[in-house]
Amino acid sequence: MSPGLGAVEGFSGDDLTNPAAAVAGGEVPFAGHHGGAVTALELRIHGVGGASAEENLETPSVLQVAGDHRAGFYRPWFPGGSAAGRPRVEAYCWGKLNYQASWSALWLLLLPFGLVNVAHWALPADRHPRLLTASRVVLRLLGLALTTAFVGTTAYLCLDVLAWQAARYNRLWDWLDFFSQRSIGVRLTLAAVPVLLVIAGLWWLSHRTQGDYEKRQSGYGAPDEDGWTLSSSSFWCGDTPLRRQRQAHLTVASAVLIAVLAMPAAPLPWLRCSLLVLAGLLALGAVVCLATPWVDRVTQGGADRGRRDTVSEAVAWGSFGLAAATALGRIWWQPTVLDRGSYAGEPGAEAIPYDARFQDVLLLVPLGLCLVLLILVWGQKPWRDGRQSLDVMAKGFTPVVVALLASLVAGVFGSTVIMSVANVLARPTATEEGSGRGLIVPYAAYAGGLAFAVTLASVLVVGIVLAGKRRRMARHVRECDGLGTLASVYADRGAAHAGPDCRKEVAGTWATSKLTDSGAGGLVGIVLPTAVALVGYEAYLLGGGGVAWLGAVAQYGTTIGVFVTGLFVVYLRSALTSSIKRKRFGFFWDVVTFWPRACHPLGPPSYAERSVPEVVTRIRRVVGDEARDGGDPAVAQEMAESFPPGGIREPHSPVLLVGYSQGSVIAHAAIAQLPEGVRHRVALLTLAAPLRRLYGRAFPAYFGTAQLDVLRSRLSTTGTVRWINLVRRSDYVGGWVLQDPGTSGAVLDREIFDPPVLWADADPAPPPMHLHSDWFADPQTRRFASELAGIISPHPAGP
Questions:
Q1: For the segment 23-63, what is each residue's pLDDT rounded down to a tens digit?
Q2: Using CA atoms, how far apart are residues 289 and 301, in angstroms rounded to an integer?
Q3: Burial class of residue 796, CB neighbours in 10 A (0-12, 13-18, 19+)
Q4: Closest CA to 397 of 385, 412, 379
Q5: Residue 42: helix, strand or coil by DSSP?
Q6: Among 221, 219, 194, which Cα is nearest to 680's?
């Protein structure tokens, strides 16, 4: 293996020199050069926050030796010095795959789409195949419903609120007089342009990222073991189902615009009816398509393409062209508009007829699908396996909770946007109260405002409950004996001499970290009241109710929702572009974008679709895996590095894979994709790993206890386990994997003390606590890395 970036003479323009020259000068740790021994390569994978290579390698200077400008492999560089005696360490930095300043704000607007994808992977293990298949179908239909609601809300704002109502009644600003003075048909045509651009933009974002993520493959030599879900050779290659689902979503989005444009009555009533029927047929076709296994992410992984793909693509673009033609045709096909309040005998003269009711349907359909999903998941009994109770999040109903959260976020966000625009232009009024003094908005907008007010109240109540729970846990840790208490953990590290302030500080930190385990219950306590308020108030308004104070609360809720949503988007965008702020929020975003796009092709892409194949290929190159077919990326890299002949080469060696936080999840997924002959040459060290605490409990089919036990067995040889998991009790993300390290017989899970000792209150400078951070620099971790490196044989296994 050559030291260059992709070739013997390859290098990064961001580096001050090239790897070949640095290796020749002995400035980079390199096996077998300048008399160096062939030892295991320690390959580090960072966690959330996109830490730099310098931070990961604990050195001020690094050189890139593989990868590209977005995700690469780096080694320490000692310019002007010698790397002799330095450990051979390499860092894989993938942070830029997930955080791009130019796109982060756009992806945040599509967060509900990403949550639907997360719900898919949170479904229970495959114990009831038919119910599980039906659950995946419902989630794909939920994704389609959210796309319909997104485009429908956009169309309502542009066509109904702006082009039909505000422009018709001179509510727009003076600089839009050119728009207000046009005929209503021309206004509808112009207002349809932003909707078409939104549809095209959603398609383009998905298509653009598909080449960078879903088209990559890591399954060359993957074991494809029954009972080990992450070992499927097509797991990280979702090109085919993504493309097929995207065509269905493009079709239904175009159908929505066609339907809204055809709702106003006009001459040629047969044309209006034909367009409405055609829009319904297109939507029905998309629903049927998504209900078939042909688009299933689990059964249709890979990059195949057939005749049906060509037909569905033609239908998708044909529907988009029909939507554009319908919008253009409104210039001549003018709606029949009579006097104010009189509209060709149809109701809703002051707004596009039936459009407000359409918005109410778009709000309720996703919630109805969540109810169906609840029934299907309930039938699978996710809280137990036979007679054995399972340690699963939200009693196994995580997919329902996440799907409901996605629906509520989409519904409330759409409501706040509609009410914001209406409040800026005029005083909004409910659907049936068209008095001419304000803009008509659907009942869904008022229901969303009240739901947001209930959300804020629920957050307050949940916060109070969790604060009380934290106090009780802190008291137990501080004052009691037994597993997980200060007296037990620090029996040999200063517990007898610790002062009350020390005990209070450490116990409080540990208790706060333990609240992570209550996060699912807190989320349920927020989501359920919000859903009940949303559906209840919507039904109340549809039934003719109209209590004044509820309407006022809904208005205030909408106003606060607009303000909070704006602050939230601004903060999240800054968090995604700032490495310091990112750590406060990044873990949530990294979980959402870790999973492939299984049910919603327009959601944020999965960085793991690229990072996992890259890590797999790198390990195979370092270890020396046998050559596969011509499409194997490892073979392609080997061929590129063979020119020019001669030069410095690094012999093959074992790999100690070190995963920190989210990096431990990537490491787990990468090992599952390794050929058996390569896996025997790999050891695993996980730091601050959320493998069981979050992923195992929320995604049991892929990281549950049974799956983690499979990984342990595949990293075991003749009774020796090549996997160690390090745990801090102050860590609010990571935790033990198979057994609490404080219990007797814990082999895989080991304790890291944070703080390292307890102290007397008179100590003016006690040791700091690091919680979830600074794992690579912690001196307690090095002996475990050395232990694993000593287990791996130093002799190369392949060519």
A1: 888 899 888 655 556 789 999 999 887 788 999 999 999 99
A2: 16
A3: middle
A4: 379
A5: strand
A6: 221
Nearest to 358 by CA among 143, 149, 198: 149
Question: CB 488: neighbour CB atoms within 10 A?
Answer: 14
Is the CB of residue 610 less than 8 Å from the CB of residue 216? yes
Which tokens sit at 781? 């971790």
Q: Rounded to 5, what percent of the chain is helix, strand, coil? A: 55, 5, 40
Tokens read off for 664: 């431990």
33 vs 19: CA distance, rounded Å: 13
Which residues are CB-contacts of 107 (< 8 A; sequence separation ≥ 6)? 114, 604
Tell me the pLDDT band of 246, cut-offs 50, 70 and 90. Answer: very high
Minimum mean pLDDT among 17-21, 113-117, 373-377, 684-688: which range?
A: 17-21
Q: Residue for token digits 């450990």?
A: 87
Q: Are 788 and 69 in contact (CB under 8 A)?
A: no
- CA dist 610 → 211, 599, 607 (Å): 10, 19, 6
What letter does residue 691 receive in the DSSP assignment?
I
Contact 486, 730 (CB under 8 A): no
- By the 10 Å C-beta count (0-12 exposed, 13-18 middle, 19+ buried), 129 is classed as exposed
- N- to C-terminal Cα distance for the chain? 10
Query: How do beta strands 388-389 and 655-660 pair?
Result: unpaired
Structure-token pair, residue 482: 């037994």
Residue 244 Cα to chain centre, angstroms: 21
Beta strand pairing call for 72-76 and 89-93: antiparallel
List the beta bridge partners of residue 66.
Answer: 73
Q: CA dist 657 to 622, 669, 677, 681, 685, Å?
A: 12, 12, 16, 11, 6
pLDDT in tens, 684-743: 999 999 999 999 999 999 999 999 999 999 999 888 999 999 999 999 999 999 998 888
Cite the beta strand spans of 364-491 per DSSP E. 384-385, 388-389
Q: Is the dihedral of CA 374, 376, 379, 382 positive or negative?
A: negative
CA-wise closest residue to 247 among 151, 192, 332, 312: 312
DSSP state of 508: H
Q: Would you list the DSSP string of 463-502?
A: HHHHHHHHHHHHHHHHH--STTSHHHHTTTTTGGG--HHH
Number of helices (H), then strands (E), in the chain:
26, 12
CA dist 795 and 797 (Å) reads 6
Strand partners, 557: none
User: How would you label 634-647 residue by residue, b for 16+ Cβ within 10 Å and e otherwise?
Assistant: bbebbeebeeeeeb
Roughly what angle, to the nearest 10 degrees, separates helices 519-542 and 355-379? Answer: 140
Which residues lie across from 687 on neighbouring strands?
660, 726
pLDDT per residue as tens digits for the range 374-424: 999 999 998 887 666 778 999 999 999 999 999 999 998 888 888 878 877
HSE, side-chain direction, 13 A CA sphere, residue 479: 6
Q: How many CA atoms, within 13 angstroms, populate the side-chain half-sphere of residue 781?
A: 19
Say which residue, 368 or 215, is predicted with more confidence.
Answer: 368
Strand partners, 782: none
- What's the whole-number average pLDDT of the chain? 87
Burial class (CB in 10 A: 0-12, 13-18, 19+), 250: buried
Distance between CA atoms of residues 681 and 651, nearest Å:
14
Q: Count other C-beta atoms under 10 Å from residue 420's C-beta.
A: 20
Angle at 221 between CA 71 and CA 642, to 5 degrees: 60
- Of 606, 637, 616, the closest CA to residue 215 belongs to 606
The residue among 96, 83, 92 whose CA lies nearest residue 45 is 92
